[in-house]
Design brief:
The complex is a heterodimer of chains A (about 400) and B (about 140). Chain A has about 400 residues and is an alpha/beta fold. Chain A has 14 helices and eleven strands. Chain A has helices at about 30-45, 65-75, 90-105, 120, 125-130, 145-160, 165-180, 195-200, 225-230, 265-275, 290-300, 310, 330-335, 340-355; strands at about 10-15, 50-55, 80-85, 110-115, 200-205, 205-210, 215-225, 240-245, 285, 370-375, 380-385. In chain B, a hairpin with a 5-residue loop joins strand 1 (about 30-35) and strand 2. Classes of the chains: A alpha/beta (about 400), B mainly beta (about 140).
Chain lengths: ~400, ~140
């Protein structure tokens, strides 16, 4: 099994999101199952055709064997069943595992469903406190860092090394909001300006409120199968062309670098598998838990050189109609961020873009989409490249 | 202080107890590999560079340089509400390892990357003292 082991072998044949944002009428578990039902309906299959199930764990309604619990709830009896223990890059890496399970014959049709009700089930204050559990219990948490503080450390280091500005970071939030304004499903749709971001309340210098992603409810699910079998489905397949991971640390105090992440390795591995490069990407769905993350990812994924990310995001380059439209659904900054499921919405948006279903926010002639997610504090990375055709 | 009791109180483990014993005596302890000479923090059973088990506890100089920092305006939990604004920083010890800390003893706005700092200890209770840094 070399670097091309998964290229062209599997495809996403079903993809769907639940309603997102403030969804108090559905529990976390109900969101998982609703996302699953919608994705199965999109794929045009029944639940009994699922023989692999993957979920991510829920903060709000945790179960020790979460995927098994969802299988039990849905009364399906898969031969492959796995729970992802955390979010961000891990959530996207689960797609990598699912692809491998299909390619090696562990199962034929995998349902990945992820959801949570962080806003309605936890409250904003409790969600923020729960997420800060990412800090080391003895060597970080006593210093009181909320999640934005971890990312502020990265932003400050990038600013110091490369002269990145608050206005450049704000351009990321502005682009995401512009796209969300064109997406009826998005949680935050009122357009914002660079000034709005810079004038919003300071959370952890240099990050303002509008540099930070949302706290949301919501779920998303996909159905994956082999590229061969994908032809029998009613939907236009989104083929997996390449994927790769990179893992550099768990705690930010142990990071090899504050300004270069393992997105570099993840991207290089994904590009190598696909036989493609940054110039081949028509649309990118990047992990935008905080605005500086997008700038670092654009550099590490080769869309610009190191230190140029701030300049790259200026002038509408990452907006629809720009050189590289990023986060066309609005991202975690404006579409929704229910916690662990975050990157699933990037996958479902990439699928919709490749199918040409995005209406006013459609990237014209989108043939190749890149999805990147990171988890922890720029710790664990996964890149995936999908295409409307095999390459 | 009542507010500080609710802060996440570190629970020393078999592996980290020598560090916390040092903090209690206001001494910053890190590990040094007797084979390759590298210093490491947090503590580990082996040297994370050469993977030898001959690691020993040593007193660090307590001198460090600010690698990055942020001024927290929205506290992580109500227990920290009385502290805002407070500085969360990463500092690189003169011996090499990086650790997270709070920079105290100066206006938050005066903190800068590259600033020289020295360790100081905040006693949370009879067993736990927290290593913080102030301008050197």
């Amino acid at each position: 099994m070399g670097t091309e082991s998964l290229k062209n072998k599997v495809a996403i044949v079903g993809a769907a999101d639940t309603e997102v944002g403030v969804v108090p009428h559905l529990s976390a578990t109900q969101l998982y199952v609703k996302a699953a039902k919608l994705a199965l309906a999109d794929a045009g299959i029944t639940k009994d055709e699922v023989d692999g199930l993957i979920t991510c764990i829920s903060f709000v309604e945790p179960f020790m064997y979460h995927a098994e619990m969802i299988a039990e709830y849905m009364q399906i009896f898969p031969r492959y069943c796995m729970t992802a223990p955390s979010g961000g890059g891990t959530t996207l890496a689960i797609m990598h595992h699912a692809a491998s399970a299909i390619a090696t014959g562990m199962c034929d049709t995998v349902l990945i469903t992820m959801a949570d009700s962080q806003l309605s089930g936890l409250s904003r204050t409790k969600a923020i406190e729960a997420m800060s559990g990412a800090g080391h219990p003895q060597f970080e948490r006593p210093y009181g860092p909320p999640i934005p503080a971890f990312y502020a450390l990265l932003a400050r280091a990038h600013e110091h090394a490369y002269g990145t500005t608050a206005a450049q970071r704000a351009a990321v939030a502005v682009a995401c909001r512009k796209h969300a304004a064109m997406n009826p499903a998005a949680q935050m749709r009122k357009p914002i300006t660079v000034e709005d971001v810079i004038n919003s309340r300071m959370i952890a210098d240099p990050l303002h409120l509008l540099d930070c992603s949302l706290v949301s409810d919501g779920g998303a699910a996909i159905v994956m199968t082999s590229a061969e079998r994908a032809r029998d489905f009613k939907t236009k397949p989104a083929y997996l062309l390449g994927t790769g991971e990179g893992h550099s640390h768990e705690h930010i105090s142990e990071a090899r670098s504050l300004t270069t992440s393992a997105a570099k390795e993840a991207g290089e591995r994904a590009y190598a598998m696909a036989g493609l490069g940054p110039r081949d990407i028509d649309v990118a769905e990047l992990y935008d838990c905080f605005t500086p993350v997008v700038i670092i990812e654009l550099e590490d994924l080769g869309f610009c050189s190191k230190g140029e990310g701030g300049r790259f995001v200026e002038g509408g380059r990452i907006e629809l109609g720009g050189e590289l439209p990023v986060n066309t659904h609005g991202g975690l900054l404006s579409h929704c961020h229910p916690g662990h499921p975050g990157s699933m919405f990037s996958i479902t948006e990439a699928v919709r873009q490749l199918r040409g279903e995005c209406g006013p926010r459609q990237v014209s002639d989108a043939k190749v989409a890149l999805v990147h997610a990171q988890g922890g504090i720029m710790s664990t990375h996964c890149t995936a490249i999908f295409g409307s055709e095999r390459v | 202080m009542a507010a500080e009791i609710a802060k996440p109180l570190p629970a020393p483990t078999l592996e980290t107890r020598p560090y916390w014993e040092g903090c209690k005596r206001h001494e910053l302890r890190i590990q040094r590999c007797r084979v390759c000479g590298r210093y490491q923090f947090y503590p580990r059973i082996y040297c994370a560079q050469c993977f030898d088990d001959r690691v020993e506890w040593v007193a660090a100089s307590g001198r460090a340089t600010v690698l990055s920092f942020t001024i927290v305006r929205r506290p992580v939990s109500p227990a920290f509400a009385g502290d805002v604004p407070y500085v969360v920083a990463l500092v690189t010890l003169d011996e090499g390892p990086t650790m997270m800390t709070n920079i105290i003893g100066c206006e938050p706005e005066k903190v800068a990357i590259g600033m020289r700092v020295a360790v100081t200890f905040e006693d949370w209770n009879e067993e736990i003292s927290i290593a913080k840094f102030r301008p050197a």
